[in-house]
């Protein structure tokens, strides 16, 4: 598959996947989500790739789902392969390292959390604004990192989370203040992926499916609950109003 909004470059056995829609703060439209789903699924079976390093172009990691597209399609783009996309990035059987730059908001926050190891710039900010307009933020993704109770309380607050706070909460693994965060992250990816693949795959499967229930079922159940919210006629108007607010 030829990618329109991703750059994919292999360095030794690590595949660097870069979100490449900087003019839109790497907003996750249908196309880029399909491309992410494809690159994760394809390289799960690629023996030449032992790890994925997820990076971003421009100042910010990702602003989340493309709200202009969501409004234009009357929520259809939000529904598009929502379960398949999230399951592909979270069930990837090899190590994933995320570089967090600038801000990661809403769906961008969730995408960053697919990293088994998240290394962040000091100035980076994580943000879950969905609660502010009645949207359904994912609990499963954040709960995998910090547990369901803390994930819920942070989500209900809807406040930006600076890198120092994210580190203390266990959301991210490291705040890097050196000059070349990409090279640093590549070293981490190499270290994490040096072990036997079968063992790594088993460990990720255990982490995903044994302590908080089955990952696929958790995501499916959560998205089924979302469907109820999306059926509310008032929700579409709330999304439109919020999209207009952030456009100003």
From TrEMBL:
SUPFAM superfamilies, A to Z: ClpP/crotonase (SSF52096)
Any one Gene Ontology molecular-function term assigned to this protein's record: isomerase activity
Record carries keyword Isomerase: yes
Coiled coil: none
Keywords in alphabetical order: Isomerase
Pfam families (alphabetical): ECH_1
Protein's name according to its UniProt entry: Enoyl-CoA hydratase/isomerase family protein
Taxonomic lineage of the native organism: Bacteria, Pseudomonadati, Spirochaetota, Spirochaetia, Leptospirales
């Amino acid at each position: 598959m030829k990618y329109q909004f991703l750059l994919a470059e292999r360095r030794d056995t690590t595949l660097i996947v870069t979100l490449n829609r900087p003019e839109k703060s790497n907003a996750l439209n249908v196309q880029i989500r399909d491309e992410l789903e494809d690159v994760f699924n394809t390289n799960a079976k690629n023996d030449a790739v032992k790890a994925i390093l997820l990076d971003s172009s421009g100042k910010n990691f990702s602003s989340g789902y493309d709200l202009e597209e969501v409004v234009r399609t009357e929520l259809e783009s939000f529904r598009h392969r929502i379960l398949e996309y999230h399951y592909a990035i979270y069930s990837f059987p090899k190590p994933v390292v995320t570089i967090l730059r600038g801000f990661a908001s809403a769906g961008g926050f969730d995408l960053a959390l697919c990293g088994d190891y998240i290394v962040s710039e000091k100035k980076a900010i994580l943000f879950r604004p969905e609660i502010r307009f009645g949207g359904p933020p994912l609990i499963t993704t954040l709960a995998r990192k910090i547990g369901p109770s803390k994930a819920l309380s942070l989500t209900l607050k809807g406040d930006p989370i600076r890198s120092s706070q994210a580190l203390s909460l266990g959301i991210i693994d490291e705040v890097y203040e050196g000059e070349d965060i990409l090279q640093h992250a590549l070293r981490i990816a190499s270290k994490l992926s040096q072990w036997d693949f079968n063992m790594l795959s088993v460990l990720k499967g255990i982490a995903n499916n044994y302590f908080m229930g089955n990952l696929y079922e958790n995501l499916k159940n959560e998205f089924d609950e979302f469907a109820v919210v999306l059926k509310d006629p008032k929700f579409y108007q709330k999304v439109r109003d919020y999209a207009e607010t952030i456009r100003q």
